[in-house]
Design brief:
CATH superfamily of the largest domain: DnaJ domain
Structural class: alpha+beta
Largest sheet: 4 strands, mixed
Strand content: 25-35%
CATH architecture of the largest domain: Orthogonal Bundle
Shape: elongated
Radius of gyration: 39 Å
Number of domains: 4
Helix content: 10-25%
Oligomer: single chain
Number of helices: 9
Strand order of the largest sheet: 10-11-15-14
CATH class of the largest domain: Mainly Alpha
Low-confidence stretches: 76-111
Order of helices and strands: HHHHHEHEEEEEEEEEEHEEEEHH
Amino acid sequence: MSKRDYYEVLGVERQATDQQIKSAYRRLALKFHPDRNPGDARAEEAFKEAAEAYAVLADAQKRGLYDRFGHAGVNAGGAGGAGFDPTIFADFSDIFSGLGDMFGFGGGRRRRGGPQRGSDLRYDLEISFDESAEGTETSIVVPREETCETCTGTGAAPGSTVETCAQCQGSGQMRFQQGFLTVARPCSNCRGTGKTIAKPCTTCRGAGRISRERKLTVKIPAGIATGQQMRLTGEGEHGTAGGPLGDLYVVVHVQEHPFFQREDDDLYCELPIHFPTLALGGSVKVPTLKNREELHIPSGTQPGTRFRLRGKGMPNVSGRGQGDLHVIARVAVPKKLSKEQKHLLEELARTMPVQAEDGSGSEEKPFFERMKDMFT
């Protein structure tokens, strides 16, 4: 049976780059690997075919010969009469980086029984708006895995020892042939740790760690916002086999304020102001984070006008100054009026300009002025 074109096998164009060839082979290797398709002869053949194609196209010299002479060029050039050399896998470890020992290329990895860093933990903390503005100090309780004090993390009962696994000789892996490949799997006797415990610790039941709750005091800096986090080094879970501790990340969630809205370090608020004050001008009191500030309202101020009070916003969480407070003027319409107030408003309405049809509020011009505008 004639061999298929190597480019066709990998599903790439003849102008494909080295990275495209590598990615195509990696995809096929994962799909047809015998360990994922036990007993499937077609999958094994497809895997061998892809490996053979990659062995040629990944080598610049062999690829050049193949492009000029086809299969005859590479078969005669040392790829072997069968066209497949199992030793090509010796240089393929970069293809499967990050995939563990699935293909038996992980001999240099730290085995599971070695020291491992403890897991990082996350704690979601809700605080009030005022606490975020002023800063606060609070206590939290964090459940985590800690080293067992009875066995000091070994998992063995006091007076007993941890022994090297007799089945895997301490490697934590068992290697065996599957077709033309050497496959590595975690040792079933020691569960990949490389060690066995004849007499487990009664406190942790051989795990070497126990679950505990740790109470911590957390200082919240002024100006912190929702989504920001604080890293507490070494307050995560304990490592195994003497490994370092993980970290604790406290993620802050700030409650909404009924009056202020925050954007970065600036605050925004809408302030209802009576119509006479907007029309005639005057002073109003504006609530801020700490007290009330007096704000001057010029005469003729329109609804929606924005005033800025510098330095009256939120403090910067890094200590670099303070934001501003933006006050948006709104008209305060009373729900109830006294007879006198109603009479005065009616009198005011009679003296106001007639609103034009376009809503501009300008007074309608006299007839002769409108006629003049038509002829000028």
